[in-house]
């Protein structure tokens, strides 16, 4: 198998999975879950966290950022499928 063939198959597999993400999150239930993820995973707000003393809580901030990255990953797969990329 050539490198080109492997890349083409990989791209097609990615597009197929992108379409699966879109199909999953386009249902009424999927839209509700996606909305909840956006709220809970800091999609539209800062991931920075402060402790009770008003100091930056680096550990909590990193956990929050990890949550945001997962939600952003899902949203990017959906967007690519919508664009047909």
Account of the protein in words:
By secondary structure, the chain is an all-alpha fold. Helix 1 crosses helix 3.
Gist?
With 85 residues, the protein is mainly alpha-helical. The chain contains three helices and no strands. The chain has one domain.
Tally of contiguous helical segments: 3
Tell me the total number of β-strands. Answer: 0
Rg is: 17 Å
Oligomer: single chain
SSE pattern, N- to C-terminal: HHH
List low-confidence stretches. Answer: none
Kindly state the percentage of residues in helix: over 70%
The largest β sheet comes out as: none
Global geometry: elongated
Indicate how many domains the architecture comprises.
1
Write the layout of secondary structure elements.
Layout: H1 3-25, H2 28-40, H3 58-83
Helix pairs in contact: 1-3
Key phrases:
0% strand, mainly alpha, 3 helices, 85 residues, 73% helix
């Amino acid at each position: 198998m050539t490198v080109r063939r492997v890349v083409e198959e990989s791209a097609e597999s990615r597009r197929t999975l992108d379409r699966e993400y879109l199909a999953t999150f386009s249902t009424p239930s999927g839209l509700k879950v996606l909305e909840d993820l956006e709220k809970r995973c800091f999609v539209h707000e800062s991931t920075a966290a402060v402790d009770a003393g008003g100091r930056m809580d680096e550990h909590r901030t990193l956990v929050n950022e990890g949550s945001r990255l997962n939600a952003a990953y899902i949203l990017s797969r959906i967007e690519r499928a919508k664009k047909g990329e």
